[in-house]
Amino acid sequence: MTELITYERNGAVAVLTLNRPEKLNALNYATNDCLLSLLNAIEIDPSIRAIILTGAGERAFSAGGDIHEFTESVKAGVDEAVRDFCKRGQTMTARLEAFQKPIIAAVNGIAFGGGCEITEAVHLAVASERAMFAKPEINIGIPPTFGGTQRLPRLAGRKRALELLLTGDTFSAQRACEMGLVNRIVPHDELMPAAFDLADRIIRHSPLAASRIITAVTRGINTTIDEGLLIEREQFARMAATKDVHEGLGAWIARRTPEYVGA
Questions:
Q1: Mean pLDDT value of segment 63-67
Q2: Is 22 annotated as catalytic?
Q3: Measured between alpha carbons, how far is 233 from 189 in angstroms, rounded to an integer?
């Protein structure tokens, strides 16, 4: 049986590839569950410092949820549809968003529906010039269900997000970049090297500091500034007594390259 998500290692970087190219890497329930399982394993492996998430094939990052499977859940009833589709998808994107190691989406093709919502949720994203995005759920009579009605307005602004959510129109990688959905656009053949370059620029630093930054931003972004500053102080306090802080300070004073141990 073909792996739904392939898992490769490149040094301290794990590469997860959505692997249903014949279905445009649509997110069926098993793929969703497989991704969560892989994240659980990566989280407790200290040798992995960052993740790159991409899609198999030349056409798609992910076309979104598996509509045929979702249709069967709807037929079974509202409770089943909410449990199997909505809650499962929201759990997955929330896990990506709050994950303690940096996750970079390498968007290699279409990122529609759930594929777009994954891009919204992860910490960073690099897009191929061929990438196309859409929030097409309205075309089948539903709102986005993996967090798209909440994260896209926070990234792009209310009116720009509502235009995309209410029309279902596709939009380019350039517009996605302008709205803050992706960090940069690169030629298609340079996508994975660009993602690895970004990962390498992150993992040279303390993994503990990276984790504290992700936590501070993720928890603080939807709070008041005063609450956010308290979260920031809490995250600093967690770092202040670590070996990595002393190593970073000592290396800076000695003008040498720090050697972080993640402790």
A1: 92
A2: no
A3: 42
